[in-house]
């Protein structure tokens, strides 16, 4: 089967080679739109493209639907990408995954999946922010085109970035200043770290994002173009009054469009988000204390078990190693899809900086695989001095999200050196800065986007691995069957009917949390009577909680009358089966 | 009796005529009024309206149209969007349009009827619009109010279900939801098993059946009421729930009614899903009705006070709705709430000033929190009507033991409150009887009390609106400095209890600072004077012509002042700012531009 899959993958590559040929960098929204449309034209029996809404900036939020027949009638997996506007690799991975699946549509395993399941792709859910990658001035942007007064001073977008060295990208400025708190890292002098007095270090530089303090509030570039970050605007664990989180949960059109789609698609069994959060290489663990309260903060017991199973599948199928921890972030989609919409929800960046072994120094190993969450020693982002925003922290530089921990930077530069990548680092160069007359100010640092988004060519192999994961997950999905259907005539037109409903898939019919969520449809077993028939005992319509793998329930009815009747059972996430019975 | 009244009026008219004949200077009564104006009420209004019944959608729209026609300089209305079923939602703006733009005055928001069976909110919102328009120019308080303040009034936040409650069959509590169809019972069908009005009288009452196994009997004192038989008694009846049929044959009755969600769990603060907070939908703002209101709030940042009417229970509810949010209503904000809430307890006997989560119950995603905490606006929600009002006292027994409503029905409503038991054939239960509370009793105020309760609630919103910030530039001083420079110092005072920014607002910078600008002058430097006597000032380097003050505190609470960090420029409820200007004073104008305090200016 794996061989077939690989073969399919090769076919897929051949099929889409034409479109990929010219692609040396990430798509703009226009390019991505064209690419999706071409795909749906080329594979019109298996793929269709529609829009589920528009971004704040009026860009279509494209939905690519894969599968044969009526998509809404089959259990589905939803793949979402690009919610974090700096993560173009996720969008590219999502599209390549779809392309490869379509390319392999003739291979048995994929053909069967496309026959029995639906795959929904939403590859670019924050197109306004992603467009900054293709813009004249390139900077890591997470926010859509909503107009917001990020620092709440009554002025909108008055303190944007400025390209001080004219290279078209926003990097960093460092100012030699007696009040500085940063020094060059001993490990890699290209990186700035907070001076550590315990190591005898004393600060040399002030560090800011590249730009001018236009509104003279002492904070740099805290109120640029846009907007709200959709990935902070979902309903679970929503953080109030934080830069980029919006006026209230679900205030943004991207967020509402996605939630409307998800809540109104009861056939979606699981969600996979490509983004800078990771719950796949290591599944979240069950913690009784986290589910004891009215508001849940951890997965339910059965769900934690299922997540463990999927994590194993992921690690096995993709053979990816050294994944960064990247914990879930507040108000993001992935957690909302589980805790609020009641679906299994998985997330991975897909690609991350590979670990480069440093054979001479074995003590570095631990550090290289250590969690790469933002470090307070980083010269920017969440903890650094550059941010602005309402609470005086975060700010536009938060766009770099997890990308600024110094360890993270060191790991990245080491890998980039090994791969001989160019254009990922700007050497420090002296400039004149109006806010610091007479001081030495330099522009430089790691180029935006580069840490989360490798050259596109690196993603082909990664996409292959994720096709394997998705087809594997598809094969494990629940499958309701109706078995042991029996009738016993009790005489005088009275018949006893028994039937067993069983889940023959490898996962539960839906996440355990779905049993709490009103909008997740439960397992329904119904008797559809013919003319002149009546139920003497038993309920016409039975609802029950999720069925685990191989779990079953027997139903029995006494029915009077003759002729045909139908037993129907199932739920949208596990399929619907029926059997006809003839009463004598 | 009637004859007696006639002669009384006759005497009154004669008397009036006689007085007029003697002295032309005597106070004039309204020429069309055959009698004397009762104090506190517009007599002989331009728009004549009755206040002892509940208006339907067409009715309250007609009233707002007539008011706008009769008082074009005081009343306008605009649609803020459509409801789920496509009804226009009109917000009425009441203000003196001749004295300043409505958006430049502090504004008070009133809505009602988000729970559609709670009709008083619509009624009282409309009463307020009518009362203000009819009293302008006649009562100084109202005249001042409309010159300096704006009222935005949305009579029904849930117009679809408002019509459903009035024109379709309901219980006293149904039609609380909106009308968006939802599957309540998980069978994949929507709204397929609703109440069934078996006798077609518009009231969904209860069903009972004589049964040897039943545990209920007729209350001997009030035969309309069913009570549990005593432990040593046989029962006579079994109770079969609200009037209805198992329409979809699933063995359950009335389990999938229209909608069945709660529009007041659809707001953007502390929102939680349905399994935590019953009635919630997909996310805050799933419904067009709540979305329309939110949009209006964001485009009207001058809203500085708000009231959302509900029933039942006689309460002035203030935020927060959940215990974990108690920290977002700090002491200085509570002090402001106390001024209004405690006075309210005097104004409406029987009503209590309550904190929502603590004294009533926990609400996640409620409007009260979104306005109060999401927007930082001082917000009350009045729970109209209380059983106290029936006999001006509270029963010491709980509802199952006391007979307040039955006695009130018997003595004051003369039996109008209940549907008497009557036999009917039920397709599933056979011979049963139906009877019980009419849908417009219990929660909704009886007609003869309605105008009074409306007026008292309106008066409470007047107190609340009165305390919105009122800014005045109380002093401007100039002083000549060396080298042809002039120092200009201005003091701006807030003369009411509500600050321009609540302490919660200040903490999270919800609204932008207040701007104090010296116009027509060449400003070289500007500063906030934190303490004149000790010579403490704080310079503003960027754009000094417009000094930005974080807040202008009110007369209570002692919240953070303009200087921030606990320091004020000039005193508890004022700020002092200073400019260094080139040249001599000449037509310089100080303008204060506050989102919630309005725009005021003074020229030297």
UniProtKB/TrEMBL annotation, chain A:
<keyword id="KW-0862">Zinc</keyword>
<feature type="region of interest" description="Disordered">
    <location>
        <begin position="350"/>
        <end position="403"/>
    </location>
</feature>
<feature type="compositionally biased region" description="Basic and acidic residues">
    <location>
        <begin position="139"/>
        <end position="158"/>
    </location>
</feature>
<feature type="signal peptide">
    <location>
        <begin position="1"/>
        <end position="22"/>
    </location>
</feature>
<feature type="region of interest" description="Disordered">
    <location>
        <begin position="139"/>
        <end position="162"/>
    </location>
</feature>
<keyword id="KW-0732">Signal</keyword>
<keyword id="KW-0645">Protease</keyword>
<dbReference type="Pfam" id="PF00246">
    <property type="entry name" value="Peptidase_M14"/>
</dbReference>
<comment type="similarity">
    <text>Belongs to the peptidase M14 family.</text>
</comment>
<keyword id="KW-0482">Metalloprotease</keyword>
<feature type="compositionally biased region" description="Gly residues">
    <location>
        <begin position="384"/>
        <end position="396"/>
    </location>
</feature>
<protein>
    <submittedName>
        <fullName>M14 family metallopeptidase</fullName>
    </submittedName>
</protein>
<dbReference type="InterPro" id="IPR000834">
    <property type="entry name" value="Peptidase_M14"/>
</dbReference>
<feature type="domain" description="Peptidase M14">
    <location>
        <begin position="25"/>
        <end position="375"/>
    </location>
</feature>
<keyword id="KW-0378">Hydrolase</keyword>
TrEMBL record, chain B:
<feature type="domain" description="Peptidase M14">
    <location>
        <begin position="53"/>
        <end position="418"/>
    </location>
</feature>
<keyword id="KW-0378">Hydrolase</keyword>
<comment type="similarity">
    <text>Belongs to the peptidase M14 family.</text>
</comment>
<dbReference type="Pfam" id="PF00246">
    <property type="entry name" value="Peptidase_M14"/>
</dbReference>
<feature type="active site" description="Proton donor/acceptor">
    <location>
        <position position="383"/>
    </location>
</feature>
<dbReference type="InterPro" id="IPR000834">
    <property type="entry name" value="Peptidase_M14"/>
</dbReference>
<keyword id="KW-0482">Metalloprotease</keyword>
<keyword id="KW-0862">Zinc</keyword>
<feature type="signal peptide">
    <location>
        <begin position="1"/>
        <end position="23"/>
    </location>
</feature>
<keyword id="KW-0645">Protease</keyword>
<keyword id="KW-0732">Signal</keyword>
<protein>
    <submittedName>
        <fullName>M14 family metallopeptidase</fullName>
    </submittedName>
</protein>
């Amino acid at each position: 089967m794996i061989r077939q899959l690989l073969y399919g993958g090769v076919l897929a590559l051949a099929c889409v080679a034409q479109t990929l040929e010219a692609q040396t960098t990430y798509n703009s929204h226009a390019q991505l739109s064209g690419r999706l449309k071409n795909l749906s034209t080329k594979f019109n029996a298996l793929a269709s493209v529609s829009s589920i809404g528009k971004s704040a900036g009026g860009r279509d939020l494209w939905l690519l639907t894969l599968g044969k027949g009526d998509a809404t009638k089959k259990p589905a997996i939803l793949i979402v990408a690009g919610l974090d506007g700096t993560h173009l690799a996720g969008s590219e991975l999502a599209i390549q995954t779809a392309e490869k699946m379509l390319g392999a549509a003739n291979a048995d395993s994929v053909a069967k999946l496309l026959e029995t399941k639906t795959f929904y792709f939403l590859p670019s859910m924050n197109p306004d922010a992603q467009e900054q990658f293709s813009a004249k001035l390139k900077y890591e942007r997470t926010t859509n085109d909503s107009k917001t007064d990020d620092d709440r001073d009554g002025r909108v977008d008055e303190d944007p970035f400025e390209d001080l060295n004219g290279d078209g990208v926003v990097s960093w400025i460092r100012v030699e200043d007696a009040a500085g708190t940063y020094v060059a890292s001993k490990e890699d002098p290209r990186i700035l770290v907070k001076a550590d007095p315990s190591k005898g270090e004393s600060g040399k530089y002030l560090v800011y994002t590249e730009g001018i303090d236009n509104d003279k509030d002492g904070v740099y570039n805290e109120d640029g173009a846009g907007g709200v970050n959709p990935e902070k605007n979902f309903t679970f664990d929503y953080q109030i009054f934080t830069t980029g989180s919006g006026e209230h949960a679900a205030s943004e059109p991207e967020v509402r469009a996605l939630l409307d789609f998800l809540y109104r698609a009861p056939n979606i069994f699981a969600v996979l988000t490509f983004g800078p959060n990771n719950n796949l290489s290591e599944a979240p663990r069950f913690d009784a204390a986290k589910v004891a309260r009215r508001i849940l903060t951890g997965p339910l017991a059965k769900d934690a078990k299922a997540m463990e199973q999927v994590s194993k599948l992921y690690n096995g199928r993709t053979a990816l190693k050294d994944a960064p921890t990247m914990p879930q972030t507040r108000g993001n989609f992935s957690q909302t899809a589980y805790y609020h919409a009641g679906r299994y929800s998985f997330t991975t960046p897909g690609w991350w900086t590979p670990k480069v072994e440093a054979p001479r120094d074995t003590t570095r190993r631990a550090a290289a695989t250590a969690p790469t969450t933002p470090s307070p020693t980083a010269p920017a982002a969440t903890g650094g001095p550059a941010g602005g925003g309402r609470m005086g922290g975060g700010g536009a530089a938060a766009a770099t999200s997890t990308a600024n921990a110094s360890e993270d930077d060191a790991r990245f530069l080491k890998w980039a050196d090994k791969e001989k990548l160019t254009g990922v680092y700007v050497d420090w160069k002296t400039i004149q800065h109006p806010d610091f007359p007479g001081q030495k100010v330099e522009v430089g640092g790691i180029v935006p986007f580069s840490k989360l988004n490798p050259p596109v060519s690196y993603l082909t192999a990664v996409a292959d691995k994720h096709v394997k994961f998705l087809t594997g997950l598809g094969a494990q999905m629940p499958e309701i069957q109706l078995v042991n259907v029996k009738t016993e005539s009790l005489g005088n037109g009275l018949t006893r009917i028994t039937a067993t409903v069983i889940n023959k898939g490898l996962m539960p019919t839906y996440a355990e949390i779905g049993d709490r969520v009103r909008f997740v449809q439960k397992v329904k077993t119904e008797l559809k009577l013919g003319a002149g028939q009546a139920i003497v005992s038993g309920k016409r319509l039975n609802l029950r909680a999720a069925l685990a793998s191989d779990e079953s329930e027997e139903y029995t009815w006494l029915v009077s009358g003759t002729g045909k009747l139908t037993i129907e059972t199932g739920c949208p996430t596990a399929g619907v089966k029926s059997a006809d019975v003839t009463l004598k | 009796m009637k004859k007696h009244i006639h002669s009384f009026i006759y005497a009154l008219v004669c008397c009036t005529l006689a007085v007029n004949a003697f002295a032309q200077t005597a106070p004039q009564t309204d020429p069309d009024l055959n009698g004397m104006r009762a104090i506190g009420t517009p007599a002989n209004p331009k728009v004549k309206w009755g206040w002892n019944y509940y208006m339907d959608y067409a009715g309250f729209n007609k009233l707002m149209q007539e008011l706008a026609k009769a008082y074009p300089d005081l009343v306008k209305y605009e649609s803020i969007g459509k409801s789920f079923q496509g009804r226009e939602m009109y917000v009425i703006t009441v203000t003196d349009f001749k004295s300043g733009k409505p958006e430049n005055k502090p504004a008070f928001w009133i809505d009602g009827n988000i729970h559609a069976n709670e009709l008083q909110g619509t009624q009282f919102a409309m009463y307020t619009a009518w009362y203000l328009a009819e009293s302008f120019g006649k009562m100084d308080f109202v005249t001042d109010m409309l010159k300096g303040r704006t009222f935005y009034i949305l009579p029904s936040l849930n117009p679809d279900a408002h019509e459903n409650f009035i024109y379709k069959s309901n219980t006293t509590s149904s039609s609380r939801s909106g009308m968006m169809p939802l599957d309540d019972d998980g069978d994949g069908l929507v709204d397929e098993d609703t109440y069934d009005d078996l006798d077609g009288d518009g009231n969904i009452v209860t069903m009972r059946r004589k049964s040897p196994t039943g545990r209920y009997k007729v209350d001997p004192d009030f035969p309309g009421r069913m009570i549990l038989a005593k432990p040593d008694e046989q029962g006579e009846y079994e109770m079969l729930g609200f009037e209805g049929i198992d329409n979809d044959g699933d063995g359950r009755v009335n389990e999938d009614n229209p909608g069945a969600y709660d529009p007041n769990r659809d707001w953007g603060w502390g929102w939680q899903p349905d399994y935590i907070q019953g009635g919630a939908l997909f996310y805050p703002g799933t419904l067009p009705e709540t979305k329309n209101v939110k949009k209006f709030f964001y485009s009207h940042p001058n809203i500085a006070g708000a009231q959302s009417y509900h029933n039942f229970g006689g309460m002035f509810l203030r935020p927060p709705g959940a215990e974990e949010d108690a920290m977002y209503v700090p002491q200085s904000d509570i002090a402001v709430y106390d001024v209004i809430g405690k006075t309210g307890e005097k104004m409406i006997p029987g009503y209590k000033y309550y904190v929502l989560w603590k004294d009533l119950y926990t609400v996640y995603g409620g409007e009260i929190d979104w306005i109060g905490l999401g927007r930082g606006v001082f917000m009350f929600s009045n729970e109209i009507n209380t059983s106290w009002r029936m006999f001006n006292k509270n029963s010491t027994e709980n509802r199952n033991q006391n007979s307040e409503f039955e006695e009130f029905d018997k003595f004051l409503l003369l039996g109008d409150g209940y549907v008497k038991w009557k036999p009917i054939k039920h397709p599933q239960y056979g011979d049963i009887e139906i009877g019980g509370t009419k849908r417009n009793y219990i929660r909704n105020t009886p007609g003869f009390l309605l105008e009074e309760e409306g007026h008292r609630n309106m008066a409470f919103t007047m107190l609340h609106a009165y305390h919105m910030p009122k800014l005045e530039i109380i002093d401007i001083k100039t002083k000549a400095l060396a080298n042809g420079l002039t120092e200009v110092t201005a003091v701006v005072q807030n003369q009411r209890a509500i600050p321009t920014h609540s302490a919660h607002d200040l903490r999270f910078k919800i609204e932008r600072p207040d701007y104090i600008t010296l116009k027509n002058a060449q400003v070289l430097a500007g500063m906030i004077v934190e303490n004149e006597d000790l010579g403490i000032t704080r310079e503003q380097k960027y754009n000094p012509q417009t000094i930005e003050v974080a807040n202008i505190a009110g007369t209570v609470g002692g919240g953070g002042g303009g200087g921030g960090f606990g320091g004020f420029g000039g005193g508890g409820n004022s700020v002092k700012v200073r400019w260094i200007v080139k040249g001599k004073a000449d037509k310089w104008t100080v303008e204060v531009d506050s989102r919630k305090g309005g725009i005021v200016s003074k020229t030297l």
